[in-house]
Amino acid sequence: xxxxxxxxxxxxxxxxxxxxxxxxxxxxxxxxxxxxxxxxxxxxxxxxxxxxxxxxxxxxxxxxxxxxxxxxxxxxxxxxxxxxxxxxxxxxxxxxxxxxxxxxxxxxxxxxxxxxxxxxxxxxxxxxxxxxxxxxxxxxxxxxxxxxxxxxxxxx
Length: 156
Description:
Radius of gyration: 17 Å
Number of domains: 1
Number of helices: 3
Shape: globular
Number of strands: 4
Helix content: 25-40%
Strand content: 15-25%
Largest sheet: 2 strands, antiparallel
Strand order of the largest sheet: 1-2
Distance between the termini: 13 Å
Order of helices and strands: EEHHEEH
């Protein structure tokens, strides 16, 4: 059993949020269809097992923490062939920031900065070339999928 735990970050609303989440197994439920993914995301709830696990881990790691409030959210782990997030334009007026490859929650603030740069049309100012994150819509052939793209594409 393992978790990721991010230090508190102050957001524009003035509040500080600490993020904690399961480090995938064994709390992941594999989703195989678009319908299953849509149903999971629409509910916006985590499973009781995930909730209890995260509460238990928070108490172990931060025994003196007395949260003002707790908010739970779900996510879908999606993986890209490049193993980098897709940050870019698919079409006029449609931009994406997807493909956290299992690290999206941990890196959301860091991913959001270059994503906003792309969406706003500002100059690219990051160490990796912008083309590294270029989205693609071409499907990969099933038999050639590298092992890191095989399920579980699951829930965290």
